[in-house]
Each structure stands twice: as C-alpha cells, then as structure tokens.
C-alpha cells in the first residue's frame, strides 16, 4: 500500500518538460521578454483555451514564427495585433482591443456589478424595514 | 406582483441570448474575409513549381478555394466528393496545399485523383495564415470579383454541399 502510494505520488509530482517553442530566441533580452508577453496573449485558434505560447499546434507554431518575424521587422505590438485581428478577428486576442465591436466585453462586467449592487441595496433596504426577529415574507408563502 | 416583474423581465431578456449561445458552435470561427477581397497571395504551383498561382486566377469566375493537406484526415474524407464535384464541371476548385510536403501531396493526388484546377503549394503556412485558416479542410466560395462569399470549415460532402453552397452559388449567378 505504502509502495503504491509513493508510486502514485511520484506519478503526480513529476512533471515532464518539453520545449514547445523551438524557434530561436531573440538576442536582446528585452525583445525576448516582449515576445513572450505577446505570445501569452494570443489565442491559439485551433485549441481555443490555450495561448500560442503553450500550444504545440501547427498553427500556433506558425503564428509564433510570424510574430517573431514581425518583431524582427520592427513592428509595434499594435501592428502585430492588427495583423492577427485582420486574419482571425478580435477572438484571437485574449485582451481584446477597445473597439465598437468589443465594447460590450469591456462594459458588461461594470454593468453587472452596478445592477447587482442596486438589486442588493433594494433587498437590504426592504429587510431593514422588517421588525427584528420576523422572517422576511420573501422566504415564506405569499400572504 | 411587482416583486416578480423585474426577475421576469430579466429572464425574458436572458432566454433568447442563452438560446442563441446554445446554437453557436464556439469551435467554428467566422472568416474575417466574408464580403471582402480574398487575401492576396502568389504561390508556386504544386505540380509545377516554375508556375505560380495567385489571386488573379480567382477573378472572372465563381470558384472554390480548398485548403488541404495530406496529413489532414478530413481532407481525405472529402476528397471523393471533390472528385465528383470536379467531374460535374460545376465550379473550378482551386487549392492551397497547406503546410504539407510536396512529394506527399503529389503522391496523394496521383493515387486518389486530382480535382483541382490548380493547387498552390504553401509549405510553411504563410498564405494559410493570411487567409485566416485555422484547420484543414476549409473551403472558401469566391465570387467573380475575387471576393470571399462564404467559408466552410470541415470535410464537405454532397449533403453539405447542397445545403451550404448550392443556394449561395445560385444567388451569385443572378
């Protein structure tokens, strides 16, 4: 039993390390850091819940290569994002840009918090008017 | 009564949104090129690298652009149908042989038949990215001005063809 447990523990604790990105690193560490930040924010389009940094899919490797090429040509992050959005849509970026199409993504959380807050405030205010110790009519049958 | 009004409205608003969400397949991405010119490209031909195939070849006729590769199982699945389609002379099928090995691709076509009017060879996948390809097979419907009308992802067959392409092609002919 003990042996089995330690075997299981070993199996779960061990990690295999395989280099996904086989492309050549930039000589300039700043560029390399920028590259790594960029690829962490691009969605792999075939394997949708992964970024292209972590994905070993063909298309992810191709996109990494393209991003490396564009960075080598001196393109800015915005230009690289444009390249991706033209081809794959806003969906390709984990951090969508602020445009009319993505507006709802950016404001929806604030709207939800706002209306949720109003709802909570209303319930709380209603309950404050009830005598102490009395069960709110909201949990009991309608009178 | 008033207590139930707000939640009721909320539910009524949410239901259509959720129903729409259920119907959409998140793995199917819309092509960014619908209604726009097909991305410019120029590729050496698969069968004869000294000749090129380019966007210009797609003008002046309604055509298909099929993205395929020998490693792609779906491409094998739809190949028989593409052969039938080519035999029927309904529409020229252009192809981009995507991220493939030239010899494998040539062998594939000589064994299973070549349905393509021309096939460009995109060995490193650059053109595939320009087309917004995210997995083979993909089939684009291009109008006579070289504009992308529709993109279908996944293996085609007769039923899907009649459902997805035939009405659109008929519309283009008008």
What does the model show?
The complex is a heterodimer of chains A (143) and B (174). Chain A is mostly helical and 143 residues long. Chain A has five helices and no strands. The radius of gyration of chain A is 26 Å and the shape is flat. The N and C termini of chain A lie far apart (62 Å). Chain B has helices spanning 2-23, 73-87, 102-112, 126-130, 158-173, and strands at 42-44, 52-54, 63-68, 93-98, 118-122, 138-142, 148-153. Chain B is of the alpha/beta class. The A-B interface holds A 45-46, 48, 58-59, 62-63, 65-66, 85-89, 91, 138 and B 3, 26-27, 29-30, 32, 39, 99, 124-126, 128-135.
Summary tags:
heterodimer; A: 143 residues; mainly alpha; Helicase, Ruva Protein, domain 3; 2 domains; 54% helix; B: 174 residues; alpha/beta; Glutaredoxin; 5 helices; 40% helix
Brief overview:
By secondary structure, chain A is mainly α. Helix content of chain A is 54%, strand content 0%. Chain A contains 5 helices and no strands.
What is the mean predicted local confidence, pLDDT of chain B? 93
Radius of gyration of chain A: 26 Å
What is the mean predicted local confidence, pLDDT of chain A? 85
Give the strand order of the largest sheet of chain B, numbering strands 1, 2, ... along the chain: 5-4-3-6-7
CATH topology of the largest domain in chain A: Helicase, Ruva Protein, domain 3
State the helical fraction of chain B: 25-40%
| Shape summary of chain A | flat
Characterize the largest beta sheet of chain B: strand count, sense, and whether it forms a barrel. 5 strands, mixed
Number of domains of chain A: 2
What is the oligomeric state here? heterodimer
Q: Which chain pair has the greatest contact?
A: A-B, 16 and 19 residues
Number of strands of chain A: 0
Under the CATH scheme, the architecture of the largest domain in chain A is Orthogonal Bundle
In N-to-C order, the SSE pattern of chain A is: HHHHH
């Amino acid at each position: 039993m003990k042996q089995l447990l330690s075997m299981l523990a070993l199996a779960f604790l061990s990690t295999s390390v395989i280099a996904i990105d086989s492309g050549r690193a930039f000589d300039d560490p700043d560029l390399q850091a920028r590259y790594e930040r960029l690829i962490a924010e691009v969605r792999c389009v075939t394997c949708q819940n992964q970024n292209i940094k972590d994905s070993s899919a063909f298309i992810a490797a191709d996109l990494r290569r393209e991003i490396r090429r564009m960075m080598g040509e001196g393109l800015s992050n915005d230009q690289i994002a444009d390249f991706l959005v033209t081809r794959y849509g806003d969906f390709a970026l984990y951090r969508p840009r602020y445009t009319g199409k993505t507006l709802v993504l950016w404001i929806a959380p604030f709207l939800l918090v706002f209306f949720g807050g109003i709802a909570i405030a209303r319930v709380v205010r209603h309950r404050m008017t009830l005598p102490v110790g009395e069960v709110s009519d909201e949990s009991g049958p309608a009178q | 009564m008033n207590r139930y009004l707000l939640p009721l409205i909320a539910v009524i608003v949410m239901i259509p949104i959720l129903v729409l969400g259920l119907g959409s397949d998140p793995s199917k991405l819309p092509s960014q090129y619908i209604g726009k010119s097909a991305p410019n490209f120029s590729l050496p031909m698969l069968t004869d690298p000294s000749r090129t195939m380019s966007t210009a070849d797609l003008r002046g006729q309604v055509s298909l652009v099929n993205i395929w590769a020998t490693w792609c199982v779906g491409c094998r699945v739809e190949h028989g149908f593409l052969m039938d389609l080519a035999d029927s002379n309904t529409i020229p099928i252009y192809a981009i042989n995507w991220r493939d090995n030239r010899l494998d691709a040539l062998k594939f076509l000589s064994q299973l038949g070549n349905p393509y009017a021309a096939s460009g060879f995109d060995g490193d996948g650059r053109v595939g990215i320009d087309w917004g390809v995210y997995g083979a097979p993909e089939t684009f419907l291009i109008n006579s001005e070289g504009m992308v009308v529709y993109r279908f992802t996944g293996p085609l067959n007769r039923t899907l063809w009649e459902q997805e392409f035939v009405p659109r092609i008929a519309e283009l002919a008008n």
